Amino acid sequence: MDVIPAIDLLAGKCVRLYQGDYEQSQVFSDNPVTIARQWEEQGATRLHLVDLDGAKEGKPVNLEAIEAIVRAVSIPVQVGGGLRHRLSIAQILHLGVQRAIVGTIAVEQPELVGELCLEFPGQILVGIDARNGKVATRGWLETSQVTAVELAQKMAALGAAGIIYTDIHRDGTLSGPNRSALREIATQIEIPVIASGGVSSLTDLLSLLALEPIGVEGVIIGRAIYTGDVDLTEAIQAIGPGRLQDVPPNLGSSTFA
């Protein structure tokens, strides 16, 4: 199982939020490039970047920081936050990002996600962020009536490369992942699922291994590696490296012409 360090970007800084609340942010570094290199040196095989400003604005905001990270590391990078238009997604992939993560448009414009999956095969992940089982959108500021399982099934049918499932109530809380929700989603679709939110210890990570045979192939870890509750190198040695398939970055100059 892949252990994927998260780098959340807010005003160009590396921060962590508590349950997605922008008013409860903690700055861990003014230099996210340094953090990215640190996680790579400790054995990370990919990085998970979230443009928190972009999630609020509806378009990428921290492009400079994202590009700097992509250029500074040799491992794949996946990016989410505010990717609600084809141009923005093409722009992110053109920077050398391996995979773009869409969320809001999966609920509001599923047909666009289908088109993107055809245009950028293997490079579109769908982030499903759930609050009490219902999908939240627009930077977690709104909650839809769509259930996480329903959305996962629809996105799998449209050709998404994988699902990132986040339980908002556990994100940034170090309260453990929602294994029952992960199991429910993974058993309903045939594409990989990546767990996100709540990991507090190596025990939490090991508990997710039981879900690997049904399709939970990765776990994103944030606050716990910043606070030192989890040692990234030890975690990777314990449960990784994983088997998520790499795809080459999209280098075509015509992607956002």
List the helices and strands and how they pair.
Elements: E1 2-10, E2 13-18, E3 21-29, H1 32-41, E4 47-51, H2 52-57, H3 63-72, E5 77-80, H4 86-94, E6 99-102, H5 104-108, H6 110-119, E7 124-131, E8 134-137, E9 142-147, H7 148-158, E10 162-167, H8 179-186, E11 193-196, H9 202-208, E12 216-221, H10 223-227, H11 232-239
Parallel strand pairs: 1-4, 1-12, 4-5, 5-6, 6-7, 7-10, 10-11, 11-12
Antiparallel strand pairs: 1-2, 2-3, 7-8, 8-9
Helix pairs in contact: 1-3
Overview of the molecule:
The protein is an alpha/beta fold and 257 residues long. It has one domain: Aldolase class I (TIM Barrel, Alpha-Beta Barrel). Helix content is 35%, strand content 28%. The chain has an 8-stranded parallel β-barrel with strand order 1-4-5-6-7-10-11-12, surrounded by 7 helices. β11, α9 and β12 form a beta-alpha-beta unit. α1 runs parallel beside α3. It is globular, with a radius of gyration of 16 Å. It starts with a strand and ends in an 18-residue tail after the last helix. The C terminus is likely disordered.
The third-level CATH topology is TIM Barrel
CATH class: Alpha Beta
User: What is the total domain count?
Assistant: 1
How many H/I helices?
A: 11
The largest sheet is: 8 strands, parallel, barrel
Question: Considering DSSP H and I runs of 4 or more, what fraction of the residues is helical?
Answer: 25-40%
Strand order of the largest sheet: 1-4-5-6-7-10-11-12
Distance between the termini: 37 Å
Radius of gyration: 16 Å
At CATH level 2, the architecture is Alpha-Beta Barrel
Strand content: 25-35%
| Global shape | globular
Integer average pLDDT: 88
Helix/strand-derived category reads alpha/beta
